[in-house]
Structures are given as structure tokens and as C-alpha cells.
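Repro:
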Amino acid sequence: MAFIDYYQALGITKSATDKDIKAAYRKMARKYHPDVNPNDKDAQKKFQEINEANEVLSDPEKRKKYDQYGKDWKHADQFEAAGQSRQRAGRSQGGQTQSGNFSDEDFSDFFSSMFGGSGKQRRQASFKGQDFNAELRLSLRDAYTTQKQTLTVNGKNIRLTIPAGIENGQTIKIKGHGGQGVNGGPNGDLYITFSIANDPEFKRVGNNLYMNIEIDLYTAVLGGEITVNTLSGKVKLQVKPETQNGTKVKLKGKGFPIYKNETQFGDLYISYSVKIPENLSEKEKELFGELSKLRK
């Protein structure tokens, strides 16, 4: 996986405060959100990088490791454990060590010992396995409810619970289901990125849903009751008399569930499209003519 400069990804400096990080993440996430940039692969990739950067920099412990080890921050525990072992070995042999930090030579020895270099087996240390990445495709209606799925990774079945409300482009981590660790080290992790297909009836923006409903001219003029689909079932809706083409109404709480909080929902926004009647009979044309005269 290519190295990502997390500070650069969020457009901040290393002196940024927690508040700065939070504000920068919100700004960048709005800019590159997949719903704002549909079918833009570059924007989706940028959105994933922003999420990854925020996950690390908003966690004080992870940020500390990242600042100290850079692209190797995920292996900080192994580096430090090897450094401590080196100190203990030096003391047991009557030698002296100045600190537990690695020099460039120490890093070189550390990696060469793991991959068969120079015979310095006493410095051999455990190493975390490779992280795996996978993509899981869902429909919008699947993402509306909590899903249980079984994935097969390297011949192993993984039972996965997907919370309702997960977003397109969102990535979750399954700890310990990546590559096998080296020299007894922990396994890598599995990162699953969700790809949620567009729905022919509903458009999702955040936790809100948007849809277009066609009504006939007579209902638009006189008002009436219609039945509309929502993701939680059909509902009856009263159309006000003299409703204009393009009128928008809001159905509160009929949008998408909030991620990991299924008791709260966004809203559903409906836009009316008034259908003009076609293939009028002579009598209908005559009546419309009379109406036209009355309006004048």
C-alpha cells in the first residue's frame, strides 16, 4: 500500500490541534464525498485517504506513533519491542546502551534479521502480517438494514455484521484477518470498502433521501390522496389543491438510518412532477377551452 502523508491529505500541519483536525476532516469529507462526486474514482480514493488520515490523527496514541515512525508507524510496537530486547541483551553482556531508540543501522539490522540477512538471529523479532483490502458491493436497500454476511478470505469464512446506514466509500477494519504474522507476530487486518449502487427510485445524500413523484393534473389542481413508496413501506400522502410542478414536501424520519444508531433517521424529500394529459378527446378539449375562458 502506498504511503499517505496524513497531514497533507487533510491539508494541515503537524502542529494542528484536535479541533483543527476535526474541522479539516469535515471540510475535506464534504468536498470529496462519493454522493457529491458520483462515478469519480479519484474522489472516492481521496475520500478513503481522508477517512484513514482522520482515523489515525484523531487518535492520540496512533498519531504519536505516526509522528515518530512515519510510514512504518503500524510497526512501532515491533520496533520498540526489538529495541528493548537489544537493551536487555546489552546489559546481560556487560555492555551499555544509551537509549531504546533505533539508529538507521539498527533498523537495517532489524529488517535483515527477519528476512534472513547477516545471520544476526539474536535480533530476530515478530512482525505484523500484511493488511488486506477488499470491496463489498451492496444495494441501497441492503444498506438500509443491518446485514449479516459471510466472506471468504484466503480460504477462511468470516462472519460479518454490517450496521444499517453504512455509506458508499466507507471502510471498516476487521482485526486479525489479514496476512499471517512473521515470527509469531500478529496477523494483519482486513479493510473492507463498501460500494453502494445507485437506486432507481431514491437518491441518498448523507442520511436524507430524495425522490420524484409524478401526479396527474387533476390531483395537482384539486388536491387528493396518493400512495408513495418509502424504504420502510408505503405511506399515504395528502396533495394540497393547486400544487405546482416542482413542489417539494418533506416526510420527517423517512430517510436513511444513522450509522450505528438505527433508532434515528434522516428525512425523505419528495418533488412533485405534474403530468399533462395526452390524447385529449374533443369533449375534453372543449372543457379545457371553457376553463381557459373562465380564467380570462
